[in-house]
Amino acid sequence: MSERKSDPDRADGERAFFGRRKGHKLRQHQAELVDHLLPHLALDITTERPADAAEIFDPAAEDIRLEIGFGGGEHLAAEAQNFTTTGFIGCEPYVNGMAKILAQIEAANIANIRLFAGDAAELLAWLPDASLSRVDLIHPDPWPKRRHWKRRFVQDRTIVAMARVLKSGGEFRFVCDIDDYCAWTLSHLARAPDFQWLAERADDFRQPWAGYTMTRYGRKAAREGRKAAYLRFRRS
């Protein structure tokens, strides 16, 4: 999980970002991937917003999904290989996580992933309206202390930002093994007029959705007795 420090007292309109850019020292090949492969896959959001986000990919993607904070990249890499005509954007400020996904991209010759090493809120602001079919947030940092709750990604303003970039019928999917953050997310999405929670029975949120790739963190949480919730919200 990322922990880069930023100003926690910024104005509400300026999303503060909190994350660690680098943890353990990268191995030589990992460092080479960050130096030489990442620049070919990285999105530059200082450029003008693209008219059509499909053109981020070559060939142009039929569909586009975003995964925020992909960690070790297990889920992102699996999705990209299972849906080869879909373009995937992975957002992760933690350089060790970026090195891990780059290694998977190289090993499997994955061509439909683009990467952003920064604040997901800034990326959302850059993307065109109704450009994504799905946004995934899987086992995010829960920031459990009350004074840190403003650091959680799920906030009213980020929900509005996701609503703008998601197509009608698109989904926000959230996975978390921390009960308080699950309740937080449900309460915030419940008051969001653009989203509908899709659960009709308990197993709809107690069990992973079909085809879900369990992450290393998810397996660790299960071993330690923490049960994850799998929440799906549809953009109206």
Automatic annotation (TrEMBL):
Q: Which Gene Ontology MF annotations are present?
A: tRNA (guanine(46)-N7)-methyltransferase activity
UniProt enzyme class = transferase
Question: Where along this sequence does the record place binding of substrate?
Answer: K145, D177
Pfam families the record matches: Methyltransf_4 (PF02390)
List the catalysed reactions: guanosine(46) in tRNA + S-adenosyl-L-methionine = N(7)-methylguanosine(46) in tRNA + S-adenosyl-L-homocysteine
Matching entries from SUPFAM superfamilies are given as: S-adenosyl-L-methionine-dependent methyltransferases (SSF53335)
The protein's annotated pathway: tRNA modification; N(7)-methylguanine-tRNA biosynthesis
Which residues does the annotation say bind S-adenosyl-L-methionine? E67, E92, D119, D141
Q: Which family does it belong to?
A: Belongs to the class I-like SAM-binding methyltransferase superfamily. TrmB family.
Role played? Catalyzes the formation of N(7)-methylguanine at position 46 (m7G46) in tRNA.
Q: What is this protein called?
A: tRNA (guanine-N(7)-)-methyltransferase
